[in-house]
Amino acid sequence: MTNTAKILNFCRGNFAKQERNVADLDDGYARLSNMLLEAYSGADLTKRQFKVLLAILRKTYGWNKPMDRITDSQLSEITKLPVKRCNEAKLELVRMNIIKQQGGMFGPNKNISEWCIPQNEGKSPKTRDKTSLKLGDCYPSKQGDTKDTITKEKRKDYSSENSGESSDQPENDLSAVKPDAAIQSGSKWGTAEDLTAAEWMFDMVKTIAPSARKPNFA
Question: What segments bear the compositional bias annotation Basic and acidic residues (predicted)?
Fold first, then answer.
């Protein structure tokens, strides 16, 4: 009786291909300040807008340029999004002043105080109509308590609507628990989809800067 040996093939070729997909600074890198990374992490952007933003960073800071001519097809190649959607997201970022535009050239706006990011939509505590809370249309230079972002004018408006109530009452209404909120802190809240998108955005930031601190989504 003879002994036979069976040779098993563990697909070395496929394993070698996976090893080549490891990121290395020798292949190029983008210099990005920690302040910008934290601002991007805390910005209320959609998943599509964030992907286009990262692509623009790649085409500018990735080549050590503040601005460059970037076509929608180049953005589509990086983001794996349709060209039309890339164009829409790019123009939205320009309107929010997160991206600067000079003719056909685009680049990141490092002046964070110039950013104007619309807040999450909610319902007015009085009319229950769908409206923007607008607790700060533009990106605040210093993030503070939610109460600090409500202006005196808005407090006067609330008081004039119902003179029998104190000016502090609307803030309590704003912080009421939202039935479809997955996360909430005071008047700021978001759905489960918003939380998933925010966590995905932070994971993308971590690929650029592993030392970036995770923001408090709650």
Answer: 123-132, 144-159
Token pair listed for 155: 């407090």
| Cβ-based neighbour number of residue 174 at 10 Å | 20
For 10-65, what is each residue's pLDDT tens digit? Answer: 655 555 555 567 887 878 888 888 999 999 999 989 999 999 999 999 999 999 99
The Cα–Cα gap between 197 and 47 comes to 6
- Among 212, 216, 205, 209, residue whose Cα is nearest residue 50: 205
- DSSP letter for each residue of 104-125: TEEEE---GGG-B-PPPEEE-T
212, 41 in Cβ contact below 8 A?
A: yes
DSSP 175: T
pLDDT in tens, 99-124: 999 999 999 999 999 999 876 444 44
Domains by residue range for the chain, with CATH? 28-115+193-208 (1.10.10.10)
